[in-house]
Structure formats: C-alpha cells, structure tokens
Amino acid sequence: MMDASAIKEIIKPAMAAQAAGHETDIPVAMLPEDYVIQSLEPYLDQPARHRALFTTYQLGSFIDYIKDKDNDTTVVYVNDLSMKATAIFDHGTEEEPNWATHRAVFSPKHTDAYAALTGKNKAPMEQQDFIDFIEDWAPNIGFADSEGEDIPVPKALAAVRRLHITAKRQATTEVGDFSKSHSALESVEITTDGNLPAEMRFTCEPYPGFEPRQFSCRLYARTGGDDPKLVYRITGLERMSQQIADEMVGSITAGTDAIAIYIGTIQHG
Question: Is the pTM of this model over 0.70?
Fold first, then answer.
C-alpha cells in the first residue's frame, strides 16, 4: 500500500500545473505544505490594485474627493434616511465588474448647536436648566408671544426667571338615599410678571457646511410639586429633517456633475 508521502509526491506536479494554469492579477505561489495557495502581493514593490477608504464629515471635502478621483464607472449611493453617502470609484459594470475597494464615505455629524437643540427636544427641564440653555445659546435663540410678536431675549429670560404656580382645587360631594359620590377638580396655572413666551426660534447649521435653518419650537410648562418643568417641542421636525436630507442630495448632485447618483444603499457580494 502506498503511504501518504508517496501520494503527495505523485500529485504535486499536477497541483502545480493546475495553479499555473489560472492567470491572476495578483501573483500567487503554491506552498509545499498542504498545497496552500499563498498571495505574493505583500512582497511586491507596489500593490496589485488600489484599495482606499476616505471618510469625512465635511460635505465639501467629500465632493472635492469625488471630483479628484472620478472615472467612467464612479457611482454614488445616498441614504437620505441615515444621512450618509458612499462613492465607489472602482464600481465597474455588470459586464466588467470590479472589486469596489476604493470608496469615499460622507457621514456628517451634528453641529454643537443642533445637537443641543435636538437633545433637549420634548425633555422636561428644571427652571434653572432652561435658563442655562437660553444663556448658553442666546445668539441662536429668538422668542415670540402667542400672537407671533417678537420678544427680546433679555425680556423673555426675565419672564422665565419669575414663574409663579397657582393651584386651584374644587370639590363636590353628592349624597343620595343609598349612595355617596365625591369628585375633585384641580387646575394649575403658571404665570409670570412679564410676557411669557409661547414660541422659541432656534437658528443654526444642522451639519457643517449646510445652510442655516430656523427651527420653531412651541413652549409649554408641566407641573410636578412646587417646581415647574419647562418643555419645548420642535414643530415639523420630520419635515425639516427631510429638507436637510434633500439639501445633501442636491449638493452632491450639483457638485459632482454627471456622476451616477442613486438614493439608497447597495451591498456587493
């Protein structure tokens, strides 16, 4: 019976011939041990093909990189839901596919002002916390009363500082022959010595390089014990978010000329 070493010696020429018969862009060699095919690319003077991933949160840098590296098969995929865009420079075609290993990714981050605005949206704040928020972002903030008339920030801030809580309770008891009922109605009113603002207007860039936008926020108060909680809600936030996404798509389209742009994502495999 032939042992394993003899069998290896017999099949070695056949395996070597088979490996040599397949042409590749990356040189390979068959190792004697277990006949594993090993890439020789790490030992070349330069890579066999270009591989690169450029990432940025600056829209202008993303567009400049695309314009600099653009070729006939460049494709850009824009995900307007996650605010992310990916450019593939070695995309290839269906007839001549490529490896898609040279990419650029645009993944913007919120500006500090926009992060502060959205981070406090619908979150009840203590009176002092809301005062601190106004003072920290005073250059970005404007106020209006219930009629839409502007209120100067110092005046609005003074009104927020002087909030009063008035609780009113009304009880009614009704007694019948075989029954008794009791009901209570409690109302809480928050007032101030000045003109309490009904709307906050917050202006900022949502992402670096995007157009500044004004976000309208409705103000209201909640009570819990003796301390009022102040809340603002950004009105039409979903609509504003879609407008911001549309701006991203429009900027990439205008800045990259005739490059193919698709709304969505793609997975190669």
Answer: yes
